[in-house]
Specification:
Blueprint lengths: L11 H15 L11 H18 L2 H9 L1 H10 L12
Helix pairs in contact: 1-2
Length: about 90
């Protein structure tokens, strides 16, 4: 194929960001209440993101993996160009 080797439509991580952001938001961390220097703040935010990652349901990850056939077909039909593929569970 004469297409770029990378397509965001084929990368499941591109779709998981929405769920990660929502899970982190649901933890209701007020970033303005975090005290300390940049290293401490980065540590707290890293822990929040790790907790948020574990809150993402396995069914979402499985559905993303199982959707690869559909995503490949959409990218193929678009000849490697941008698609409007919408991941739904």
């Amino acid at each position: 194929l004469d297409w770029p080797p990378y397509s965001p439509d084929l990368n499941p991580v591109e779709y998981i960001w929405l769920y990660l952001k929502q899970a982190a938001f649901n933890l209701k961390l007020d970033v303005w209440d975090i005290t300390g220097g940049p290293e401490h703040i980065n540590g707290v935010l890293s822990k929040v993101l790790l907790i948020a990652w574990w809150l993402i349901k396995n069914r979402i990850v499985r559905a993303l993996v199982n959707s690869i056939k559909d995503r490949v077909e959409v990218v193929y039909q678009a000849k490697g160009w941008h698609t409007k593929y919408q991941f739904t569970i």
